[in-house]
Amino acid sequence: MEVLITADRIQTRVDELAAEIVRTYDGKPVTVVGILTGCLMFTADLIRRIDLPIRVAFITASSYRGETFVAGRLEIHDELLPDIAGKHILLLDDILDTGKTLTRVVAHLIDRGAASVKVSVLLRKLGRQEVPFEPDFVGFTIPDKFVVGYGLDFNDEHRHLPFVGILQPG
Ligand code: XMP
Fold first, then answer.
1. pLDDT, tens digit, for every residue of 138-147?
2. 152 lines ligand 1 (CB under 6 A)
């Protein structure tokens, strides 16, 4: 597998993102909400560097199904989410692709009464976005390739890799 972003580069960038986030919230309490399962490593690494009063929660939003690269219907499950009414939310996702998932999840959190929602993604794919959506904090902009590792999977494999790699089709 071709390594696109090394583990060291990821860790350095996560340090920088955490510093930006701490400056932005300036001591305000934040509820960090990770979108499972791809957010796994990004969330674990980022929250350990955020020196703010934080709560951590998770939501599930999935559109990719099994062994296909084709996006299906989006399902949001928020049974694990505590009451977020009046809370400032920092939403974490692994990758911004078409933008549909994050648009839907942000609307969902606002519906649940969040005071504000800011979004941080580890990766943003170039030339794929179908709906206008601007994340507040972006780790890396990447080419339009299917990537795995650091939480990202193909059929639930490769999530454990400490780097982001390009999965060759076939
Ligand atoms: P949208 O299109 O809604 O999709 O922005 C975001 C979700 O799609 C998945 N996704 C990927 N997963 N490698 C992956 O492992 C990829 O290259 C990739 N591109 C999109 C991912 O679940 C993300 O949250």
1. 999 999 999 9
2. yes
Distance in Å, CA 58 to ligand 1 centroid = 17
Write out pLDDT tens, residues 115-157.
999 999 999 999 989 999 999 999 999 999 999 999 999 999 9
User: Hey, which residues are catalytic here?
Assistant: 97
Backbone angles phi, psi at 100, to 5 degrees: -70, -40
Domain span at 81: 2-166
Q: What is the CATH number of the domain that holds 60?
A: 3.40.50.2020
Number of separate domains in the chain: 1
